[in-house]
Amino acid sequence: MSIICTENLSRHYGRRVGVDAINLDVGAGEIFGFLGPNGAGKTTTIRLLLGFLQPNCGRASLFGLDCWRQSALAKRDVGYLPGDLRLYPWLTASKALHIFGEIRGVDLRERGYELAERFRLEMDVRVQKMSRGMRQKLGIILALAHKPKVLILDEPTSGLDPLMQEELTCAIRELAAEGHTVFFSSHTLSEVESLCDRVAIVREGQIVADERLETLRSRALRAVELVYSDEDTAERVELPSYLRLVIRYGSRCHCELDGPTPPLVQWAAGQPLADITVGAPDLGSLFHKYYQSPGDLP
Amino acid sequence: MMRGLLLKTWYEVWLMTLLFGCALLGVNALLTYVIPQIQGGLIEVIERLPFVRPMLTAMLGTELGDKITPQTMQAFLWVHPTVLALLWGHTIIFCTRLPAGEIDRGTIDVLLGLPVSRRAVFFGEVVAWLVAGLVVLLMGYLGHCLTSPAIPDQLRPKSSRALVVLTNLYCVYLAVGGITLLISSLSDRRGRAMAIAFAIVLASFLLNFLSQFWEPAEQLAFLGVMQYYRPAQILQSGNFPAADIAILLSVGAGALLLGSEIVARRSICTV
Question: Do the domain assignments include residue A294?
């Protein structure tokens, strides 16, 4: 069953396109990465999902409920962390858990205190006296405290130190393991790569790719370094079609592998090589292509 | 749910409401004591400077007549610019908090990220505002009661009539607040919403004032909320201004309903 679903979802700001005909379908237990450069339409999509913005056309639904017309009902089991989190300056973690618990109709204090301990947040410090990282931790705690069935995070690691980023990753994995859905928006490839099962890439308001991470990995180029016994051999070598020479210096050839590794291994076995190094799939360059050139998509 | 929303509003407004209430208490206590003492001086000023009479008439919303009665003097308490400025200040500050204030400071995303309908958020704010306005007004009345034993019996207005004036003033407060909430519901900037609300209140005050001297303004006077607030008449006659109150309540309620519809239907997020 799809938990988050959008059909031709579009939102324009005057002449400017926010998002255009976005189609998403995220199932239970998935950690869904929503990746794109700044201004690509990630936050607009989230705001449409939460019913802040009315779509110009298309629809968005959470648990089958319309995000605009049944927004309050749809958000009952949603935890949300805004990208640019701003909290009331007088708020403390304990007051926030009390107030948010009253609004949600559940007691958030027990789990909230556990999370505060986990994320090392003091309960009685006012937001106005908190650092950016502390405010971000409080936002994360408030988003997680009611164990939401859908967790929507908009660039959640900003302001967090590496330890806390790791802690957040663990918390997200635990939630997903229990069958909860996570919608993780980011412009940082590495955090999406380490966490998500599936990734959609958004550029200029449109989805340009929506695939499982494994599929993307299999399509990504790998860096290959071939070291020959001498320079002459390196100059004379004829590379197979799936291996593209990037640069040659001396007896070393730096290449890009476009395809699976077994044919490369087979080909390399017949070569007078002193050494060979095959790198991990370079998702970075793949995403770079998605981000940059509309006419040159892989 | 509503309890949580009210709790949030309470944390934000209790200090402001207390300060406005204390200020009104102090001003009313002082004016109640001082106004009877300046009665003689005021008559002398009106005789020497005739243009003062229409100004006072405009403030009180009724003709002064040949002589200034004790009731007329007490009515000055309820139309004194300081008293009105405190009340309008409170209502304009309060009623621009949502949604303009929340959008302006960026907290609206957190608030609307919760499972609450926008109408619930709006009416939660309205309930808190109605209670806070009542508290401020009652503190003002308390200030009046504190010093009224110090003035002679014949100068002291009847409590029942003072309470009717208070009711009428509360209705003006509701009308101004309703209009301010409507402006706020259309705005993303609190400062802009406050400026527009202030300009409307000021225009209403000026219209009421100009209508005493200028015929075109007199024809438009019905548009200003101050036209429906005449404390001197109430104190003199003791009549309940049912028509004025009905008009003020209709304006307030209409503006609130329209405001809640706008909040429910418009796209709202941090800009």
Answer: no
Average pLDDT for B165-178: 96
In terms of C-beta density within 10 A (0-12 exposed, 13-18 middle, 19 or more buried), how is residue B260 classed? buried
| Res. A157: pLDDT tops 50 | yes
Number of domains present in the structure of chain A? 2
Give the CA radius of gyration of chain B. Answer: 20
Q: What is the CATH number of the domain that holds A241?
A: 3.30.70
pLDDT digits (tens, 9 = 90+) for B28-73: 999 998 888 887 777 778 778 777 777 777 777 667 666 677 777 7
User: Looking at beta carbons, which residues of chain B come within 8 Å of A104?
Assistant: 1, 4, 114-115
Tell me: do A87 and A167 sit in the same domain: yes
Q: Are A87 and A31 within one domain?
A: yes
- Which of A175, A22, A51 minimizes the C-alpha distance to B264? A51
Tell me the pLDDT tens digit for each residue of B82-93. 999 999 999 999
Question: Locate tokens 């106005």: which residue?
Answer: A128
Interchain proximity A52–B117, CB inside 8 Å: no
Identify whether B270 is part of a domain: no
Any domain includes A291: no
Interface subset of B 48-107, CB within 8 angstroms of A:
105-107
Residue of B16, B109, B118, B265 to mutate, testing the A interface (most A Cβ within 10 Å of its Cβ): B109
**B13 Cβ under 8 Å from any chain A Cβ:** no
CB B268 within 8 A of CB B108: yes
- The boundaries of the domain holding residue A245 are 221-281
Question: pTM surpassing 0.80?
Answer: yes
